[in-house]
Amino acid sequence: xxxxxxxxxxxxxxxxxxxxxxxxxxxxxxxxxxxxxxxxxxxxxxxxxxxxxxxxxxxxxxxxxxxxxxxxxxxxxxxxxxxxxxxxxxxxxxxxxxxxxxxxxxxxxxxxxxxxxxxxxxxxxxxxxxxxxxxxxxxxxxxxxxxxxxxxxxxxxxxxxxxxxxxxxxxxxxxxxxxxxxxxxxxxxxxxxxxxxxxxxxxxxxxxxxxxxxxxxxxxxxxxxxxxxxxxxxxxxxxxxxxxxxxxxxxxxxxxxxxxxxxxxxxxxxxxxxxxxxxxxxxxxxxxxxxxx
Length: 293
What we know:
Helix content is about 70%, strand content about 0%. The protein is mainly α. A hairpin with a 6-residue loop joins strand 1 and strand 2. Helix 5 packs parallel to helix 11 (about 230-235), helix 7 runs antiparallel to helix 10 and helix 12 runs antiparallel to helix 13. The chain is globular and about 75 Å long.
């Protein structure tokens, strides 16, 4: 029989949810509301003087050619990272779900990269692929590939995608593995008895049953790429070369801290927040229709 907690009053339930409510208000709603208010102001670099300017900051944002360039870069970067991090994680999860000798150690090693901070992950990959000092970048130049992420925008984007994908594969792997282990083995065995091969069983049985997990990870990965990759970009390329790896979130930082325009930076952060909310709503409205619960 299912047991439920019954409270005689509202005081104890309120106290139990109060810590989470406080964290949400302090670290999300207050900064978001402050950013919205700052987006209507013109402030100096130190935030000591301000002037209400209405929608001028928003107009200035959409008059910048660099903003549209950063938007295109963000679309390319997020698409590549989302695809590769999900695909590689699913591949690793399907292999780790098999009965392998030393499988527990293999799973542990795959989870470890998620504990690495984004900035550290970026530095590690930059050291490995440095054109003259890197253990992988230098051999590429010796073999004639002309690898230089410090000067070539395409090389820099490739390095960023590799860094961000490596950082997030562990998170996706963990959820995919849990989803695979929740699938009844009898269903897969029934498909094998009916004559379905491994690939056919995967695409017709396993992957449809993983669709709720895949949808959840798609939403989380998009949010990760839009916001949490800032540390990787700052450590690896700093938005360069010549702004070719500047994403929307990094442009918010660059215009606010380096450019000293706090109002313009706040307006960009509000626009970015609206884009992510709209993108998430579209995913729940249209992509979730294909999810089989």
